[in-house]
Amino acid sequence: MKKTKAVLFSILIILFFFNLSFPQENLSPLPPTEVRASDTPNDNGHSITVTWKLSGDDGADKKNVVAYEILRSDSPTGEFIVRGMVPAGNNTYQDRGAKEKEDKNYFHPHKDFYYKVRAKTLNSYSESEVAGPAQAYGEWFHLGKLPVFVGTVTFTIMVLAFISLARKGKEFYVRPLAGIDAVDDAIGRATEMGRPILYILGLGSAADIATIASFTILNRIAKKTAEHKTKIIVPCNDPIVMSVAQETVKAGYLDAGRPDMYKEENIFYLTSMQFAYVAAVNGIMLREQTATNFYLGKFYAESLILAETGSVAGSIQISGTDEIAQIPFFVAATDFTLIGEELYAASAYLGREPLLLGALKAQDLAKAIVMISLALGALAASFHLGFFLKLFTVQM
Length: 396
Known about the structure:
By secondary structure, the protein is of the alpha/beta class. The chain folds into 3 domains: 26-134, Immunoglobulin-like (Sandwich); 143-161 and 357-390, no CATH class; 172-352, Rossmann fold, CATH 3.40.50. Helix content is 43%, strand content 21%. It has helices at 2-21, 146-167, 178-181, 183-193, 209-228, 239-255, 274-288, 303-312, 327-333, 342-351, 354-382, 386-390; strands at 33-39, 47-53, 58-59, 62-63, 67-73, 81-87, 92-96, 113-120, 125-127, 131-134, 197-202, 232-236, 267-269, 292-298, 316-321, 336-339. Strands 13-12-11-14-15-16 form a 6-stranded parallel β-sheet, sandwiched between helices. Strand 14 (292-298), helix 8 and strand 15 form a beta-alpha-beta unit. Helix 5 (209-228) runs parallel beside helix 6 (239-255) and helix 10 (342-351) packs antiparallel against helix 11 (354-382). The longest helix is centred in the C-terminal third of the chain and has 29 residues, at 354-382. The relative contact order is 0.10.
């Protein structure tokens, strides 16, 4: 009898410790509570954020809950489907969908959705109460991009203000550019030598910013050549660019008071093929023995070929482009080079148009503000001043 009692007692002890070691394997966890579902801000109405209070069995000293499943339905009593899962310790989930209506996972804005959160253990689970209805909807303004909006508005105001001042006759200082200052000397040299000037607009279209800036410079150079009675040759690789160049040169001759000297045949179309165009231009350089060559616009692999041939012909060469990869070739092979944005500044420097000057000065001021902000940001990061860094935080 005593032996039987001892065996039973041992079995009870073993069961007790076994149950103590794995008390949560066969028990349902406490469900999550206070489940909330609401539209996710600044996402154009394509997700709903679900939050909840963690299960009472989720904690550092409670290893029961291993994950939370988020379930969604179109009605509070309908079938709930699993939309996602997050590890234990998390109490937020964004239910996202596709933005294209053709996608089977398209997230319908302005549609009622109901949610439940399921606390899961290894062998069981428990569910929260149903939360909802919740709808996703798009906002009129993305608050996370407020710094971009403020910067855009500020820059626009600066541009308009500087343009207004330029139209009222205010003189703005523009840093002298060596390449532009050498234009008059180059034209004078061509006049003294009795040799023509070659102007290349590059291979860009009439819609390219570099080509548009080059047109402004061409107008100024055409006016000077008319005053000096020097021939100017403008071969083009685009018919539209040719038409604009003809009108630009004609306007320059009119401004100089010598429209009778304008010869339309000097501004002509060659070909749209890149290296065929370059070969034809090189032939013009060598046959005409041009005294000055201008390469201002958008250039590609032909830049060094043109500059080397002009150097062989003994021409003074002034170049400028916004194609970064071609700038080193122009710097090495031409006498003066307008680097990047200097090409745009040159058009404002020569044309003195209020629109160009106003935009140029606004850009200079904006660059100064950016540089100061970068310096202040570096100091703020060094001294852990988070409030300053948050002013420039942009959400995508």
